[in-house]
Design a protein that fits this description.
mainly beta, 1 helix, 296 residues
Length: 296
């Protein structure tokens, strides 16, 4: 579980009720496309009197289906930077329309979060101070928000353009206008996120591509086709029957390591729901001639 050490920006204003204060200066999150960096997603911390975010790269998270989403702990500062030490805290989940939903039972500096759905999440914290008797008497009017974004698993749609070719050719006769495989659409699913934010579409993200062929069902040993753009012209010359797939990864967060769930696979289909098969026929050798049926 990751921990964000955020800085709480507060001003303590005398005696007051423990109620939250709305500020309408903020405009975040405001994603800018194409999305290739956390800055484009507008994630990180933002103070109550600010209109721009201080970007935090780790505020972009991968979604792991096995855990129903990532876990993370947000940590508020122990004071406001002006000598006022907080005795407790009040955390809120902030919706797109500005509604503050209190996070019940969370009054310490740490806010653990689990199973975050794909899309935007904004959390807000206020600092509270107590008198000498231990009674909370003062809440910060100002606050700081932290905006997170959880990357949705991607659904890849591929398209086959035969260019007038049959689904196969002779090994020494690659078509001059080859069969073309392409990624025609990338979608992201945010249906489980109820925060109300307008999340970017899958096509709004820059992604990295890698195309593979599988020879005669040998899925354990895919052939890297060395193509890193969104389409591939079939130009294989080794005989056999091949199927194809493309791997797609987000560029905005590339430290996936060995986690297989950060790579999204689109199998190339033939239009009928079955894998596209392209058969390359070996070049036959010369026929031999014999003499027979002689009449003299």
């Amino acid at each position: 579980m990751k921990t964000f050490n955020t800085i709480l920006f507060t001003t303590l204003l005398g005696m007051g009720l423990l109620t939250s204060f709305q500020s309408y200066a903020q405009t975040a999150p405001n994603p800018q496309t194409p999305i290739s960096t956390p800055t484009d997603l507008d994630v990180g911390t933002i103070n109550s009197d600010a209109t721009t975010v201080t970007v935090i790269d780790d505020a972009v998270l991968f979604y792991n289906p096995a855990t129903s989403g990532p876990s993370v702990t947000l940590t508020a500062s122990i004071d406001d930077g002006n000598g006022n030490v907080f005795d407790s805290y009040q955390w809120y989940l902030v919706l797109e329309d500005g509604t503050e939903n209190i996070v019940t039972g969370q009054t310490t500096a740490n806010l653990p979060l689990t199973q975050l759905a794909p899309g935007y999440h904004k959390y807000r914290v206020y600092g509270l101070v107590a008198n000498d008797g231990g009674t909370v008497t003062c809440q910060s009017e100002e606050y700081q928000d932290l905006i997170l974004f959880v990357l949705s698993p991607l659904d890849i749609t591929t398209t086959v353009t035969l260019n007038g070719n049959p689904q196969g050719y002779c090994a020494n006769d690659v078509p001059s206008t080859p069969i073309n495989l392409s990624v025609s659409n990338i979608t992201a699913d945010y249906s489980s996120n109820t925060n109300g934010y307008s999340n970017p579409s899958g096509n709004d993200f820059e992604v990295a591509y890698n195309w593979y062929a599988v020879l005669d069902g040998g899925a354990a040993n895919p052939i890297d086709l060395g193509t890193t753009v969104n389409n591939y012209d079939v130009s294989i010359t080794d005989p056999g029957t091949y199927t194809f797939y493309v791997e797609v990864e987000y560029v905005v967060k590339v430290d996936g390591g060995t986690r297989d769930y950060v790579t999204y696979v689109g199998e190339v289909e033939d239009g009928t729901g079955n894998p596209l098969e392209v058969t390359i026929t070996p070049v036959p050798g010369a026929p031999s001639i014999s003499v027979g049926g002689i009449l003299e």
